[in-house]
Structures are given as structure tokens and as C-alpha cells.
Specification:
By secondary structure, the chain is of the alpha/beta class. The protein is 48% helix and 13% strand. It has one domain: Rossmann fold. It contains twelve helices and nine strands.
Length: 321
């Protein structure tokens, strides 16, 4: 077993709101371009039933979901039926309805200082960005002055273990791992025990990426939760599901199945850069009402930020901050 405490790494300076907005808006540019086609519908047409129907279909195709599409169409039609409307007005209404849908799910990932360690289990399918997200979170917690341990629970892949070790070194977090192929539940047990013994503030546990339709793999994730509870009956204190924005509608089934298996408490959506499918986060919020803690727009250590309903709504609608 590897169990090390790397020297503390220099923490990045907090990014300004303006800089983050540019990155978010840039990352969602393809999504906003898809919605731009919808606002273009009204440039030479009045807002009649046919136009509203086309707008509705466009919103659904942009992965925003039927619930939000219904709300936007109703809001657009109020007092404007058969009247002229500008593309900017359409974008403003879309942004407002997205913001209304997302406000209830905006919730920071709060670490309860009374729980030592505060155990965060991170789950998701292959390639969703779990390990990178854990590394970024470790850096954020370390910048807040918290002591952190990373547990390499993705024991299927030696590369994942090494990647997490690199993130631990970069962030100044402690690191615990076993050899590739070792029992992930046993590693999780040892990690919670070690972090508790040392009085650490936060323990982030990586898990192997698994397809949500593989019942035996989901069963293994459930086993990890059961084993963690043998050390601390209240843990895990948070179960973070990492979603890849590029998968679009498939993310809905991922949330459904992981939520049933391990009681997901919050979401982080990655890879919003370069995808035209960021709207799926709105559909997920409307259907599941799970807290959205973070969104990510790149691989860098600063490319993960707390979720903002207003910023997301305006960025995806193609409006300025």
C-alpha cells in the first residue's frame, strides 16, 4: 500500500468573476449557438402558434427538456401572441426560464467541520472526469486550509491510481492506494480509518468508472458504501456524481441509476467546453432536483467552479454577463 504525504503545493490564486465568465461563456458557445437558431426563427416572423411550436422543438433538441421548453413557450406567448419579437427578447426569456429552473438546485458542496473526516465518495461512468474533478476539489479544499486525503478507489486502472497520486502531489493532499486490481471496498475501509486516525478534514474517494447498466459493477459500488459505514456509520457524508456534458440525454439515466444505487447527494458536470449539449443540465435539474455543486469547463486546476444559475442561463442563451 502506498501512503504518503507530499510537500504542500502552491495554491492557485482565485480566479476573478469576469475571467470565469469568459471561460464559461466560451465553453457553452456551441450550446448557445444551437439556441441561436431558435431565436433566429422570429427575425422575420410573428410569434404565432407555428413559430412557438418550432421554438419548442428546438429547445427540446437542445437537450433542455420538455418541461423547460413548455415554460419558455408559455413565457414567450404571454402578451406577445401574433406580435413581432426580437431575437434578443427570445434569448432573454430563455435565460430567465433556465435560471428559474436552476435556482432551486444551486447549492455549494458544504463540508461539515464536525465530521472528521468529511467523506466524499465520487462516482460516475467511464470517462466522465471523476479523477480530474477530485484533483480540482482537493486543490480547492487545500486552498481553504483544510487537510485532505485522496483515496485511489479506481483499482481497476493503474493509470487512474497514478493520475490521482499526481493530483495529490500538486494539491498537497495525502494519498492512499493499493496495487492495481486490489479490492476497492477494502481500500475505502482503510482510507476512512486512516483519515479518521489522523484527524483529517476531508477524504475524497475515487471509484472505478462503471456503466450504469452493469448491475454487478453497481453492486460493487454499493459494497463500498456498506464497508465505509463500518468505520463511520454516518459516512459517506456526500456522494458526488460526476456527469460528462457531452453525453446529452444519456446523463438522465445515469442520474436515475446511480441515485438509486448509492444515494447521490449532488452533481458536478464536466466538459462543458466544446459541447453543444450543456442544456442537459437543465433537464436533469427539472427532473431530479438534485443539488448542482460544480461545473467544469476544462482540464486545468482552475476550470471547476461553484455553479451559478444566472451565469449558466445567460451563457447558454448567448447573452452577456
Amino acid at each position: 500500500m502506498q501512503d504518503s504525504t507530499p510537500d504542500g503545493a502552491t495554491q492557485p490564486a482565485p480566479e476573478t468573476g469576469t475571467a470565469w465568465w469568459r471561460r464559461l461563456a466560451g465553453g457553452l458557445k456551441r450550446s448557445s449557438s444551437a439556441l441561436g437558431a431558435i431565436s433566429d426563427l422570429v427575425t422575420k416572423r410573428k410569434l404565432d402558434d407555428s413559430t412557438l411550436a418550432e421554438i419548442h422543438d428546438g429547445l427540446v433538441r437542445a437537450d433542455l427538456g420538455v418541461v423547460i421548453a413548455d415554460r419558455v413557450v408559455v413565457a414567450l406567448g404571454e402578451g406577445r401572441h401574433n406580435a413581432a419579437i426580437s431575437a434578443e427578447e427570445v434569448k432573454t426569456v430563455v435565460a430567465a426560464e433556465i435560471e428559474k429552473a436552476l435556482v432551486p438546485v444551486v447549492q455549494p458542496l458544504s463540508v461539515d467541520a464536525a465530521k472528521k473526516p468529511f467523506v466524499i465518495l465520487v462516482a460516475g461512468v467511464n470517462g466522465s472526469g471523476k479523477t480530474t474533478t477530485i484533483g480540482k476539489l482537493a486543490a480547492k479544499f487545500r486552498a481553504e486550509g483544510r487537510s485532505v486525503m485522496l483515496a485511489a478507489g479506481d483499482t481497476f486502472r493503474a493509470a487512474a491510481i497514478e493520475q490521482l497520486k499526481i493530483w495529490a502531489t500538486r494539491s498537497g493532499a495525502e494519498f492512499i492506494a493499493r496495487e492495481a486490481g486490489a479490492d476497492a471496498a477494502g481500500l475505502a475501509f482503510d482510507a476512512v480509518a486512516a483519515a479518521k486516525h489522523r484527524g483529517l478534514d476531508v477524504l475524497l474517494i475515487d471509484t472505478a468508472g462503471r456503466l450504469q447498466n452493469r448491475t454487478e459493477l453497481m453492486g460493487e459500488l454499493e459494497k463500498i458504501v456498506r464497508v465505509i459505514k463500518k468505520v463511520d456509520a454516518t459516512a459517506p457524508h456526500a456522494v458526488l456524481l460526476v456527469l460528462d456534458a457531452t453525453v446529452g440525454q444519456n446523463a438522465l439515466s445515469q442520474v436515475e441509476i446511480f441515485r438509486k444505487a448509492v444515494g447521490v447527494t449532488g452533481l458536478a458536470m464536466t466538459k462543458l467546453d466544446g459541447t453543444a449539449r450543456g442544456g442537459i443540465l437543465v433537464a436533469i435539474a427539472a427532473k431530479f432536483a438534485l443539488p448542482v455543486h460544480y461545473v467544469g469547463v476544462g482540464e486545468g486546476i482552475d476550470d471547476l467552479a461553484p455553479f451559478s444559475a444566472r451565469e449558466f442561463g445567460r451563457a447558454i442563451a448567448g447573452l452577456d454577463a
